[in-house]
Amino acid sequence: MDGKNLLSEGIDVLCNGDEEIKNLVAPRREEITAHLNNYIKEIETFNSAYGLVGTSDTNELIVKHILDSLAPLGIINRLLKETNVENKAQIADAGSGAGLPGIPLAIAMPHDFTLIERMGRRAGFLFNTKAVLRLSNVNIEECELEKAQGGRFNLVTFRAFKPTEPKLLKTLFKVCAPKGVIAAYKGKREKTEAEMASLGKNCKNWEIIPCKTPFLEEERHILVIRSPD
């Protein structure tokens, strides 16, 4: 199956499996798909030079990175509703790298996204991609997460980032707005539960939500950690 058909079928699977995703994507289906295809082209153009993702196979890129980033779209939208955010929410993608999951989410959602990336070359890729795709709801900050302006974000997400530990949690909550939420992309439930159990009393308000990525047999979950405030 060629990449465009695979992406389109994957979006169909996501929409059919979650009414929340369908409501977000269906009205702008053609626009979202076109933006995602252009984003895929940008990654493939610069991947060898910048080491953006660990594959040169288009189908693997679509499944393991694009569809995987979009899979919890419904979960994330429901989390934002829980925080009683009106109009546009402020969302941060910590350690954004190639813009995953931040750019696919920003393409699909009406909220404002800040991609935080410390590496200059990857931040340069993000600035270029924002310009090429004309993503008006995306901002890029080239800095360490610890140096990002705090107290702003209703939701902070990250993928393929550090294991959850007390110092990281403290930093993540520092950039969160009051009642902010962390949504971490994770793999196996057993490993994630062990990771959180090791935190003990340092983190009590969390849950693990199953999240199925189309055409991927590997286990996927979203770890939701709510602000202690």
Structural description of this entry:
This protein is of the alpha/beta class and 229 residues long. It has one domain: 3-Layer(aba) Sandwich (Rossmann fold), CATH 3.40.50. It is 47% helix and 18% strand. It is built from nine helices and seven strands. The chain has a seven-stranded mixed beta sheet with strand order 3-2-1-4-5-7-6, with helices on both faces. The radius of gyration is 17 Å and the shape is globular.
CATH superfamily: Vaccinia Virus protein VP39
What's the pLDDT, averaged over the residues?
Answer: 93
Q: Give the CATH level 1 class.
A: Alpha Beta
Tell me the distance between the termini.
48 Å
| Strand fraction | 15-25%
Poorly predicted residue ranges = none
The neighbouring-strand order within the major sheet is 3-2-1-4-5-7-6
Largest sheet: 7 strands, mixed
Shape: globular
Q: What is the helix tally?
A: 9
Describe, in short, the structure shown:
This protein is an alpha/beta fold and 229 residues long. Helix content is 47%, strand content 18%. The protein has a single domain, classed as 3-Layer(aba) Sandwich (Rossmann fold).
